Amino acid sequence: MRRTALTWALAAATTASLALLSAPEAHATTLYVRTNTALRTSATATAAAVQTVTPGARLRSTGVTRSGYTKVRWHGTTVWVRSKFAKAGFGSRSLNRLQSHGKVAVLKVRHAFPRIKRIGGWRSWSNYSSDHRSGRAVDFMVPSWSRAKGKKLGNAVARYMIKNRKKLHVHYVIWRQRIWTTADRKWRHMPNRGSANANHMNHVHVSFSNG
Ligand SMILES: [Zn+2]
Fold it and tell me: Mean pLDDT, to the nearest integer, of 179-199?
């Protein structure tokens, strides 16, 4: 009896594993939209557009590609998106290892602030918090940060994060030795950590909630 039950259980487990392997979900990957682009009813530019998606939008790939398009799930159906405009990879380990909220924010900032070119995400070390190590934090490096135009740009990125804090799941923002948290909702001065980088003079740090 025990043997029969065990055999049955093993058989069931094997069947379940096979089902999992062959299910489309096994290949499902999150794709991140890079530019404004249409979701179409078939894999051609002349097919009807059912929706336009914007940078940072997330799509679930079915793993099926055709003629430069990828088939994605969309509200209980499937549609097609240009493969080069909806990709999983971010081109660096630091960004690839970010959690989803950070990845979305990277694409939003790249789109809204094209002057922000250098962006760091995950890294194995941090003196002050686990946010970078957990893939929950992004550093937006500000060009010309010591000059008026750099300050203006960093201010704009920080303001953008605060304004869109709910949509982007922002936990806190650090910029120019000040921290703004969603709990406080105001800027607070931070102690001097000894360098322009450690004091966040040259970059806007944003931590996101998990997810
Ligand atoms: Zn940081």
Answer: 96
Instruction: Tell how strand 170-175 and strand 203-208 pair up.
Output: antiparallel
Distance between Cα 73 and ligand 1 center (Å):
34
User: How far apart are the CA of 138 and the centre of ligand 1, in A?
Assistant: 6
Cα of 31 from ligand 1 centre, angstroms: 25
**Distance (Å) from CA 169 to ligand 1 centroid:** 16
Residues 209 and 165: their CA atoms lie apart, in Å, by 10
pLDDT at 28: 64
Average pLDDT in the chain? 90
CATH 2.30.30.40 fits 24-87, yes or no: yes
Domain residue ranges in the chain: 24-87, 93-208
Q: How far away, in angstroms, is 4 Cα from ligand 1 center? A: 57
Buried b (16+ CB within 10 A) or exposed e, 14-53: eeeeeeeeeeeeeeeeebbbbeebbbbeebeeeeeeeeeb
Ligand 1 centre to CA of 46 (Å) is: 44
Q: Give me ligand 1 centre to Cα 173, in Å.
A: 9
